[in-house]
Each structure stands twice: as C-alpha cells, then as structure tokens.
Amino acid sequence: MMAALQVTPFDPCCFSNRNSVLPYKSVVSCYRKKRGLGNVNLHYVSRMSHNCWMVFASQGKRLDYMNCKCQQAESAGGVTADIGCMPVHQNLNAPETIIDNVNKVFSKSIEEESWNLLRQSIVYYCGNPVGTIAANDPSSSSILNYDQVFIRDFIPSGIAFLLKGEYDIVRNFILHTLQLQSWEKTMDCHSPGQGLMPASFKVRTIPLEGDDSATEDVLDPDFGESAIGRVAPVDSGLWWIILLRAYGKSSGDLSVQERVDVQTGIRMILKLCLADGFDMFPTLLVTDGSCMIDRRMGIHGHPLEIQALFYSALICAREMLAPEDGSADLIRALNNRLVALSFHIREYYWIDMKKLNEIYRYKTEEYSYDAVNKFNIYPDQIAPWLVEFMPNRGGYLIGNLQPAHMDFRFFSLGNLWSIVSSLATFDQSHAILDLIEAKWPELVADMPFKICYPALEGQEWRIITGSDPKNTPWSYHNGGSWPTLLWQLTVACIKMNRPEIAEKAVKLAERRISEDKWPEYYDTKQARFIGKQAQLFQTWSIAGYLVAKLLLANPNAAKILINEEDSELVNALSCMISANPRRKRGRKGYKQSFIV
Ligand code: GLC
C-alpha cells in the first residue's frame, strides 16, 4: 500500500457528486459487505476528497495555498512582492543566486502540488490502487469519459510512481488490465481480434446480486465500442508492454513479467500485431485514431506514432519473452519484423533538406525493382510550408507514408519515441532534436509541445477531419499544444545527452501550467490560450510534468524507458540487404547510406 496516500474521511456534503452506477457488464469483480459509510468505494472517496478540496478552494483555502507558495518564494529570495509567482518575470537587479533560489523554491512548490493532484487522481479497485483517472476537474460539466482510467494516460502516472519507488499501483494496473485483455468485446455484432487491450476502464461499485447488504467492484473496460468515433486503441497493448518492462527494470521484480498469464498476454498482443494481412509494408496497418490522436485526423494507414510504439514494444517484448516450446516461430517473426520495420522507417520516412531536394526532382511512374521513387510520390506534394519549415540543419520522420502519398506533417510523439526506442538512427535522433531547437517558436512557442505541425486548415481541414469542430486549426489534435508530451521530450533529450532542451521546455511550462490548472491542451499557433474544450486538472499533464522533473533530476533513471541501438539488429539488417538480390540492384552505396 502507498504510505502517503491521502484518503479524507467521507463528507456527506460531497455525496451529491457521487457518480451514479450505470448499466455494466462485468467479468472482473470483487465484493465486500457494506459497513455503514465504509461501503463507499474508495475510488469515489478519492474523487470526492478532491471535490471537497475544491469546496474549500471556493472558501479561499486554495488561494491561501497559492499565496503561501509566493510567500515562500519571497522569503527565500528576499525579492519584492512584484516578482509574484512567475519566476520568468524576474527582477533583473536581483543577484543571480537569489533568482535561482526563487526559481528552485517556486518549481519545488509546483512539484509538490502536482504530487498531491496525482495522488488525488488515484482509482481503487477492491481497496487497491489500480490506475489514475484521466481528468479530475470537479468544476467541469462535461466529463464525458474522462472519469475513466485510460491505458495511454496512465503511462506517465505509472512512470512517476515507479520513479518514486511506489510500485504497487503499477503492478496492479499491469495485472488488472491484463485480465481485461481477454474480454469479449463487440461493436454491434462484430468482435475485434483477441489480444486487444482496452482504451480505458472504469471501476464501478454495484449491489451484489442476491445480497442487498453487499456491494462489489467491477472493472468495466472500453475497447472503443463506446468511445467517441468507435476507434480501436492499437497503442494500448504496445504501451502496456513498454510499462511492463519499465516496471521490471525499475523495481527489480521480474516475477510479474515471468508469470504465465503475463507471458501469454505479451504473446497475444504480438500475435495480433504480427498477423499476416494484405499489406506490402512492415509497418503496422491501422485505422484512423488508433493512438493518442484518437479521432479522424488523416492518420489511417501507417502513422508514425504507432510504428514507433510498435518497434519499442517489439524490442521490449523480445527482452521479456521466456524461451519456451513453440515460441521459436514467434521470436523469428518478431526479429524479422524488427529488421524490416527499422529499415523501412529509417529509409522511407526520413526527410531533411537533402532528401527533400531528392523528392523535388523525383521521376514518377517508374516501373522496375530499382525504382528510386518506390511509392510513386509526386513532387508537387511538397507544400510551401514545408520549404519554410525544413531547417538547413536537422530533419524528422514524416507522419505517414502510403502509395503516392507522404504526409509531411511533423508528429511529435512519433518522432520523440523513435529517438527513445532507437527506431531512428543515432544521427537521425540528433537531427530531430536539432530541428526541435531550430523550430522552437513553431513547435513550442508559449507551451510545450505541439502535437503536430502544421494544423490542417480550410478545405483540407473539412475533408480530413470531417469538419470536426473540436479539431479546428491549432486546437486539440490539430496543432494544439499538449503539456503531457514533456515527458517523452525529456526521455528523448536525456537519451541523446541533450537534457538542456528539455530543461528549457519544463521552465516554460512552469510559468503557467499550475496557474492554468493543468489543462489537457492549449490552443492557437503560439499556445496562448487554454484549449477551448480542454479538461482542467488533466492527469497526464500533471504526471508528464512530474516525470520530466524527476528524470531531469536523475537522468540515469530514464534507462527504464530507453532501448539502445541493437547491434545484432544492425548486423542482421546489413546481411539481409546484401543477401537480397533485388535490393542489390538498388541504388549504389545503399548499405552505407543506411548504417549511419
Ligand atoms: C482524449 C485524447 C486521448 C486521451 C483521452 C483521455 O480523447 O485524445 O489521447 O487518452 O482524451 O485523456
């Protein structure tokens, strides 16, 4: 159990906030006898305690707390009250050390606040912590499904707990979501493939059948069958594998990944991802909205984010899979896919000034094995924004590649996770960070970090998003700025030994994020406004900031998430290229150009 867990006594004034129990389907459940007010599910107590805290806030307590932080800062630095809570608006006459101290105290108080908020978002199942709620804003009138535990949203929460040495919640999360994996899930009368992990789940407390004096907790997953747009969450299982490895590395407890049911869970995810289809590419073929961007945004096909997570999950799974009878085929398939996938992404998704110039001069309609323009890309696709955007130094992996179509948009998570997982080469990884530095005003501006760049506008927006009013230009998934991406940025920067980039981003976030109440995302090209429909007290904004802070303080800990370049893979790749007669007829210097 978590020592610092704060569960306030049940306060009837908050009772009206209690979520009603909705119709459910349950396989995973546990029950307990009612004992007076103790029958209230801890999950709800946690939410209610937060609600109560906000009631206090309206009575001035929250204000006191904020004031208190400022006073602390003042007394530590002896700087006048004009400095307020914003260390960036510094008194320029103050000696540097004083400003440093003020900044440190200020940042420490935000860190403390974020820990409190993170703990208040914990969800309990049968009395045990199993995850964190997506957003915990009691003032919001439209919580939609933000009262659920999202698999992807829990990852930064889980990492924060691991870094703090609080392993139980992560272990419970891993094992309970595993139980959900094998659920029967349908949309109308169709069931998606076995092995799919849910996008989210909710803990419901319901009366126990046949016993009025008892209740039971049930875990109710959503595989996309009630999610907005009914999208299947391809990324959930991939993140689950990545978190499982991080748990083992961080806690030293390998018994979880060695369990038979966990091994079976890994295999089920792999089988689903590695199954043969009609596809010609080694990249994973998915529908629109199968990842963090869980809406129609023109990222169907082979979006970079899914490929980076897929690669990372394959590497992590290979590390954890126990050799057993009958697994040789799976391991072989996995290794082959890793080699082909990394080649494909490094070679065909990469663009920089040099490659752009090649594309600009592409011949089209080539029919041969040695075609240079393999996907028949028409150079006219190079948009004016891209000519402006591409710096002389730097490059990135494009968002998506399909026959006759390159989606040149910069997608942040895919690029950052390609660095973390070593899907990108060493040089490419540095080039991505070079680009981030060069394009700071476009990608970061007032709040890290744009989810993608640039936004879709006009007719393109109408066609691609289906005129989605939430995805208007520079908002939400369409070029909005998401503070949660801070943690992936930090891991990538630490891996490449360039933490100063992440430090700069964290400082920028600290100027507003707490005062703005930890929004889910920001709007406008400069990220100046809190997102129009953004939830406040969004847990992964809080956890993303915390993970960034914790890792910058202890960069070595980032190892639990990083995959170093695998020399066996590089060798296998060069053997594969030289053994393939068709490839040999390809362009000269091919092999050298890949192994950077
Ligand atoms: C939004 C985001 C999704 C996230 C969910 C819960 O739907 O697009 O990525 O998991 O909110 O925060």
Automatic annotation (TrEMBL):
Known catalytic reactions: Hydrolysis of terminal non-reducing beta-D-fructofuranoside residues in beta-D-fructofuranosides
A GO cellular component entry from the record: chloroplast
Keywords tagged on the record: Carbohydrate metabolism, Glycosidase, Hydrolase
EC number annotated for this UniProt entry: 3.2.1.26
Family listed: Belongs to the glycosyl hydrolase 100 family.
Function: Invertase that cleaves sucrose into glucose and fructose.
Identification of the protein by name: Alkaline/neutral invertase
Source species: Cephalotus follicularis (Albany pitcher plant)
